[in-house]
Structures are given as structure tokens and as C-alpha cells.
Design goal:
7 strands, Nucleoside Triphosphate Pyrophosphohydrolase, alpha+beta
């Protein structure tokens, strides 16, 4: 069963001129975002992030929790996810994570493409404010030596 929370996971790489961040184009909507998904059964947000990264990117990594958090309205989810949630669940928390991406990403059916971009390029391409906020936090932490 789908747990009532969402995760956001941001892939990054250190390059000669700073950091690059991988942004994904969804196959079902014309929008760019980071890896995202919901928890399953009794998963913790961190466990869900690791699983979603493997499912959507084909890689196994360790994640770093970020403080960035927002709430997502439940009306964006397919109704089948809401059946096991209390009737008064109108929003669910979205927990954010960063992860160093050492390998090439293998896209799942959920995305048509991914691109590695600078902070400014990624920020401009992203659809959701929560993605931009988490990206900013991750950039600051990376520059501070996380």
C-alpha cells in the first residue's frame, strides 16, 4: 500500500567547474523534476528514496537527508493511492534527499530523458517550487563541504 508521504531525490556530480544536477523529464506530463515518488507499506522516507532512485534511475546509492520539506496536495495523486489513507488526508509531506551519482542513470518508463545541468540551468528548468527549494539547499550544503 502507498504510504502517505512523498520523497524527492536530487542526483549531483562534482565537476571541474562546480556541481551538476540531473533533472528528469516525465513521460506522463510535460514537466521537468527530480526523482520523486511515494513510500510503500512501512518504508521510512529514506528507504523510499533509495528504492525510488533504483526504480527511476537504475542505481543503488546512499542518500543524504535535506531539511527542505513541503506538503503536496493529495488531488495530484491517482485515486487508487488514496483508498488506504484516512478520509481527511488532504496533503502529504514531501521529504528531500541529495545523492552523489557515480554511475550512469538508466531511465525507467516514468521519464523520457534526463540532463545534467548547472544550478542555474536546473533551477530554470524545474516545474515545482519544492524542487527548486531543495536544489538550493543541496547546492549550499555542497558548497559548504556537506
Amino acid at each position: 500500500m502507498r504510504a502517505p508521504f512523498q520523497i524527492l531525490a536530487i542526483p549531483y556530480r562534482k565537476t571541474g567547474d562546480g556541481f551538476r544536477f540531473c533533472v528528469f523529464h516525465r513521460s506522463d506530463f510535460d514537466q521537468w523534476q527530480f526523482i520523486a515518488g511515494g513510500g510503500e507499506d512501512s518504508e521510512t522516507p529514506e528507504e523510499a528514496a533509495v528504492r525510488e532512485i533504483f526504480e527511476e534511475g537504475g542505481i543503488r546509492v546512499r542518500v543524504t537527508p535535506l531539511r527542505s520539506m513541503c506538503y503536496i496536495p493529495t488531488d495530484i495523486f491517482p485515486k487508487r493511492y488514496l483508498y488506504n489513507w484516512p478520509a481527511d488526508t488532504y496533503v502529504v509531506p514531501e521529504y528531500s534527499f541529495g545523492f552523489e551519482c557515480p554511475d550512469d542513470i538508466v531511465l525507467s518508463h516514468e521519464h523520457t530523458e534526463c540532463v545534467w545541468l548547472s544550478f542555474e540551468e536546473a533551477r530554470a528548468k524545474l516545474k515545482w517550487d519544492s524542487n527548486r527549494t531543495a536544489l538550493y539547499e543541496l547546492k549550499c550544503r555542497l558548497e559548504a563541504g556537506m
